[in-house]
Amino acid sequence: MSKTAILELDGNKYEFPVIVGTENEVAIDIDKLRSATGAITIDPGYKNSGSCKSEITFLDGEEGILRYRGYSIEQLAGNANFLEVSYLVIFGELPTAKQLEQFETDIRKYTLINEEMKNIIDGFPKNAHPMGVLSCLTSALTAFNPKSVNVENEKEMYEAVCKTMAKFLVIATWTYRKSMGYPLNYYDNTKGYVENFMRLMFELPTGPYAANPTIVAALDKLFILHADHEQNCSTSTVRMVGSSHAGLFASISAGVSALWGPLHGGANQAVLEMLEEIQKNGGDADKYLEKAKDKNDPFRLMGFGHRVYKNFDPRAKIIKKAADEVLATLGVNDPILNIAKKLEESALVDEYFVSRKLYPNVDFYSGIIYRALGIPTDMFTVLFAIGRLPGWIAQWKEMRVNKEPIGRPRQVYTGPALREFVPFEKR
Ligand code: SDX
């Protein structure tokens, strides 16, 4: 691979360095482009632009490969637990048994939420979407934890990681409890992280609650599959907000808002609503496939397509297999799953989808499992956020520790040229 790239503009030639990543990804470093040429690049949606170098996640969209810190998603999902993978994603190495035990112990130091946070959640209407409540509560954590993180101080950074992992899980479940009119639960420091998620969500003061181990294991795997995904929309948002040196809670809060969109993390909820609509209208998957192909119809096949994956999303493969296993173990026969499989089968042989390399993504099957686990549809994206939290933390930490510059893209102005002010009487 050549070490430089040559750009010719207005008869002049300019040379720019080329960098090559661990997996031979090639990038042209245009740091000096504007000062050298006076020109900038433009790339709506940043489809061809790298925002940073990162050591956290590698994905190959053509081959359908996903690795966290060099470990394949298949091996991690098959052998590790969510806190273990969170530690890996955030700190860069798989923890020893002692380090993992200490990590869980240190998270437990911060699982209590300031009681005054309840005044904030009380202000929401019951039908408020959980993602909007979560984004607000996450930002509100700053009010009760105002000390900014000195990212240069490893101990302070570690404590901020543990605090965020602890408090985010609890407030995420409070969004559901609020919508149900249930009392808000407290984390039980004698139980595991994912088991606590189920308790925080479903335990009622009227009787004992025991989380189903099959459900806890399935959720643990789902959280692993969502833990990070390089510079996706919400992670890029967390980096962008954090690049102004806004705090970690404020940056994560912005990431929650970005994830909420139906083109991003909100797709898991949109997939279930789409499948339910297909079921309600007679289950004719092919009719909806035609709608998705019709340029005059805004309908898209939710859970299909991806900015980077032009092959199967490796997470979708794992989730599809888990869906079969979990529903069988729980004895759930959900016709929605059959509609999803029919939709997938038809799309994978349809020229429109094949020519555009549109495959099922992580959101296509996850909602089916969540529904089988008793998770309400409008909480699906909250679960995505819980899974993605370690990735957001890891990427924010990497950006700050690497002293990345504040994010401030350029633009090409296409509005009116200079013109004189026009007084009212002449308008
Ligand atoms: C996530 O980036 C990440 O890593 C995200 C994520 C993560 O872990 O963080 O993986 C999680 O967000 C997964 C994606 C979830 N979103 C959806 O399932 C929503 C449905 N998908 C699409 O909206 C779309 O595929 C996107 C948004 C995911 C990707 O859009 P792109 O890369 O901008 O692609 P595009 O819109 O330019 O589409 C290219 C072509 C277009 O047709 P033409 O103009 O070439 O004729 O494919 C078509 C699109 O119309 N197309 C679809 C489609 N997705 C793309 N047509 C019908 N149904 C779809 N779902």
Fold topology:
Blueprint: E1 4-9, E2 12-20, E3 26-28, H1 33-37, E4 57-60, E5 65-68, E6 71-72, H2 73-79, H3 82-91, H4 97-108, H5 117-122, H6 130-144, H7 154-180, H8 193-202, H9 213-225, H10 233-242, H11 248-260, H12 267-280, H13 285-293, H14 314-330, H15 335-347, H16 351-355, H17 362-372, H18 380-401
Helix pairs in contact: 2-9, 3-18, 4-7, 6-7, 6-11, 7-8, 7-18, 9-14, 9-17, 9-18, 10-11, 10-18, 11-18, 12-15, 12-17, 14-17
Bound molecules: s-citryldethia Coenzyme A.
Main CATH class of the domain at 4-50:
Mainly Beta
CATH topology-level fold name of the domain at 4-50: Rubrerythrin, domain 2
What is the element string, with H for helices and E for strands? EEEHEEEHHHHHHHHHHHHHHHHH
Number of strands: 6
Mean pLDDT: 96
GO molecular function: citrate synthase activity
InterPro entries: Citrate_synth-like_lrg_a-sub (IPR016142), Citrate_synth-like_sm_a-sub (IPR016143), Citrate_synthase (IPR002020), Citrate_synthase_AS (IPR019810), Citrate_synthase_bac-typ (IPR024176), Citrate_synthase_sf (IPR036969), Citrate_synthase_typ-I (IPR010953)
GO biological process, one term: tricarboxylic acid cycle
Catalytic activity: oxaloacetate + acetyl-CoA + H2O = citrate + CoA + H(+)
